[in-house]
Amino acid sequence: MLSARTDFSAFIGIDWSGAKGERHGGLQLACAKPGKAVPETLAPPSHSRWSRPEVMACLAELAAQAGDQAVLVGIDFAFAHPFDDYNSYFPRANGLVPENPASLWRLVDDVNADQRHLYGGAMFQHPIWGRYYLAPPKFDADRYQSRRRLTEYAAREAGKSPSPTFKAVGADNVCTGSLAGMRLLHQLKTALGAALTVWPFEPLKSGVTKLVLVEIFPSFYFHHLDLVPDKNAAAKAAFLNRALYGYDSAGVAADFVAAGHDADEADALISAAALRHFASNGCFDLAPAIQRVAQQEGWIFGVPPVPA
Description:
This protein is an alpha/beta fold. It has a domain at 15-81 and 151-297. It is built from eight helices and eight strands. The strands form two sheets. The chain has a six-stranded mixed sheet. A two-stranded antiparallel ribbon has the order 2-5. A hairpin with a 7-residue loop joins strand 3 (28-32) and strand 4. The radius of gyration is 18 Å and the shape is globular. Mean pLDDT is 92; it is low at 1-6.
């Protein structure tokens, strides 16, 4: 098994976007190196904004270049839908219902095969699966429920919980980003095979794993420190640095102003610092009862495995 506390060469925080289109200001990447240095923002390769396929190519390159130490990457989307409440992602659905995360990712990618830039919105129009999503333009999801994963209940008790994964409307929509992210997980796993470990669905293996992907929730990392980034507060250096210091990281320059409509760059920076911090504090270790659920639903990295 990989020693997750010591064997990472870098920690990459990615603030994700599921919006339609090619490039998005909300896509922001930051890298923290081992130690306490402030994380650095990663610029896109050929444009002022990242595209999702470019992010995927970047991750594949990180895996190819990794040596003896793996790279830990956190991405801001739900890695799976709720499962444990009904023992199904899509209760009462007709057809071949996915029974595990890998088959869920494959389903989402197959349904969206004709959608460019890893967009996942075709799920909303599907005659079977679309009935489960609260999404435009019809809002007629007769099987939609405000279901939550176990990790979301735990996150709420520990600071802040994201919205339900089937809710694709409102400013707190995590659904479109999660569907785009599931496409990325399927395609990246297909391309990299055993070199990629998606936690907590797979064990980390020393000498084989080059890239470890975990689910993150940037807002949780602020709230976990009793810092509430209202009204774009995280875009400002003073507020962001209070959070960075809380994760044993050096701070940004005093004149720093985060890029992105919702201070997305700050979310990437705090996520990279939190990944570095939590990787050294046993956050890969889940109790057997929690692990059983997490292997179907996923787990937000850094959320205490037992509700406080």
